[in-house]
Design a protein that fits this description.
It is a single chain. The protein has twelve helices and two strands, in the order H-H-H-H-H-H-H-H-H-E-H-H-E-H. It is mostly helical and about 270 residues long. The chain has a two-stranded antiparallel ribbon with strand order 1-2. Helix 3 packs antiparallel against helix 4, helix 5 crosses helix 6 and helix 6 packs antiparallel against helix 7. It is globular and about 65 Å long.
Length: about 270
């Protein structure tokens, strides 16, 4: 269906977690631009699936049972949508981590338990270690937990965002803190540091959050009931992603934004 589109392997990776079609040339661009995390079905994607599920369950004017609690229906549909998306990705470790956190969020809300975001994060890490103690030996758990911890710290105590200026300011603060505080772990995994990852992600994370991932989810939802319409959605998304990928290739080819650790000078390595 997407033959001829350079972004076809990217859509496969986002839709069903198939990354075997992403050859070395793709990973080279993703690593040098600091965008490899966008290609893993992880917390961002599971969270978006849950958010869309919550919106559908809460706001769609379909009353299955008279007098049903719409908020509760939204929470259940959020879990179901996240579970289905994780199943499509083969329950990869990154998706299981996000599912556990979403389940803890549901239990806390269902039981009307007062807790902070830090409590939810610590409960998630403890649960994941109970499920699989070997996860402590890999970087994935700590990279995910560290990223969430940084987002919580950068967000502060604000529970609502007042206006677009505040939203942009918060997004920039979060991205700068992520870029700086995750440098040691990211450098170890990628073998270098992408100094342009921050500004690129400030643009691409919202693009993937509000355009790409919802487009992929919509294409998947339409696949069985309306395959032709699903094809139209996915082809339009592939055309859009072709343009995004072309820009990323140009940026990665400049070689000015990525410092490989084995070639770093003494001062740059120290910094």
């Amino acid at each position: 269906m997407l033959t001829g589109h350079r972004s076809a392997p990217l859509i496969s990776a986002l839709a069903v977690g198939v990354r075997s079609n992403l050859d070395a040339s793709y990973w080279d661009v993703l690593i040098k631009t600091g965008t490899a995390h966008l290609m893993a079905i992880s917390g961002l994607h599971i969270g978006l699936a849950g958010m869309l599920g919550f919106g559908a369950g809460r706001y769609l004017p379909v009353r299955i049972t008279p007098g049903v609690n719409l908020v509760e229906r939204g929470r259940v549909s959020a879990l179901v949508c996240a579970l289905v998306y994780a199943a499509l990705a083969g329950f990869a470790i990154s998706t299981v981590r996000a599912l556990v956190m979403l389940l803890i969020w549901y239990v806390l809300r269902r039981g009307r338990l007062s807790s902070s975001a830090w409590t939810a994060l610590l409960l998630t890490v403890a649960s994941l270690l109970l499920l699989n103690l070997r996860a402590a030996a890999g970087p994935g758990l700590w990279l995910s937990a560290g990223a969430v911890a940084i987002i919580i710290a950068a967000s502060g105590t604000a529970t609502a965002i007042s206006g677009p200026v505040a939203a942009v300011r918060l997004a920039c603060r979060v991205q700068i803190m992520l870029m700086l505080l995750l440098v040691p772990l990211a450098a170890e995994i990628a073998g270098g540091i992408s100094w342009i990852a921050g500004p690129i992600n400030v643009v691409l994370v919202p693009v993937f959050s509000f355009v790409v991932v919802p487009g992929v989810l919509l294409g998947l939802l339409l696949w069985l009931p309306a395959p032709e319409l699903s094809g139209v959605v996915l082809k339009a998304l592939a055309t859009f992603l072709d343009g995004v990928w072309h820009v990323l290739e140009i940026v990665a080819a400049r070689e000015f934004g990525f410092i490989a650790l084995h070639t770093a000078s003494g001062w740059s390595a120290l910094l």
